[in-house]
Design brief:
This protein is of the alpha+beta class. It folds into 2 domains: 123 residues, SH3 type barrels (Roll); 307 residues, Fumarylacetoacetate hydrolase, domain 2. The chain is built from 11 helices and 26 strands. Strand 23 and strand 24 form a beta hairpin. Helix 2 crosses helix 4. It is globular, with a radius of gyration of 22 Å.
Length: 448
Amino acid sequence: MLALNETHDVNLTSWVTSANNKNSDFPIQNLPFAIFRRKGSGESFRAGVAIGNQVLDLAAVSHTSIASGLSSEALETCCDETLNRFMGLGLEHWSSLRSALSKALRTGAPEEAELSGCLVAMDEVEYRLPCQIGDYTDFYTSIHHATSVGSLFRPDNPLLPNYKWVPIGYHGRASSIDVSGQNFHRPCGQTKAPDADAPSFGPCKRLDYELEMGIFIGPGNAPGEPIALDQADQHVFGLCLFNDWSARDIQAWEYQPLGPFLSKSFASTVSPWIVTLEALVPYLTSFERPASDPQPLPYLDSRKNRQQGSIDIQLSAHLLSRQMEQAGDSPAKLSQSSFRHSYWTINQMVAHHTVNGCNLRPGDLFGSGTQSGPDPEEAGSLLELSGGGKKPLTLPNGETRTFLEDGDTVIFTGWCEKAGHARIGFGEVQATVLPAQADLSARADIGE
């Protein structure tokens, strides 16, 4: 069962001194997981845990004596090139390994001599996707985002009637998801101007980001066996930052009647570090639904979900243009919001996803949907910040944006902090927009 334990003690410090910096994303109270290797080494990828500005190489740790029992069984799976097998073990194994690592990394721990040789500096490593993502489902959990975007597309009916009853989601494309540092070409596709008689083909002109959380599934469920709401958190391994890039002009033309397709499938980017749900226990908070709104149906409602269904994760979006990068400028902050504003909880997403008998598997990924807050400056996309492209944003260097331009790098950060608990972070996720590879509409032989 997820609960506060000694690994959350705010007074814990580490013999890895960089972890004791109050601004570190990776103090000893965090201990997130990633798949890494040394840059350019040709080594096998394997699991690592972040501690300060170091990566603890779990394949190397497996040759030490710090683990036994369940933690040893868990550590053995961390020699794999993906986290799928580790994710599939479940909370008891995850928690056991987390506890063993926490004890071994604490100030004064006798394991320091044994583990100090298992550290690799973060600036010397490269990452890849933390697991094989078999299936990816993108949800739509921010009512503020749904209302804001709906008002642009459907001014008279911005929020469809099912939104307050059903956690809306669609099955996305897993093959184009990549890890932070991803570069991708501006997508091409069909678009149709409001005053045009027919659509045209060419590069997307309204490219956007979406500030989201990624939710990685641990143990799955058998086909036909739904996961109950209050057991859903036992099936969630952890969370990461997630950018679900969107081609808004392609989306506007294609999304009816079946929803997004080519407007979303060209690229999505995850941060390398997965913060476990156990590490986030101090930041669980109440899930509140306005009394005037429909209350969740019984399979989506419980006392536990109301008491601690939400998570207070601060999220921010930044943009670094090519011009800013060349001038040595810092990225410009565009907005900041919180995951606690989500209209549906993670447990509700899991319960609803499986209520029809759908089976989940270790490594499956949920996108939370764009996380916008109640205030305009908390919007999680340029579509909202620019009023659908009608109100350009001015960057600190004088450049303006309605949507993304070639060469733009978008960076998300995320963190949790509150009195009485250690601040923990998610690192960052970033990716850069490259020019479209070709305007296929110019090819004389297209369609032949």
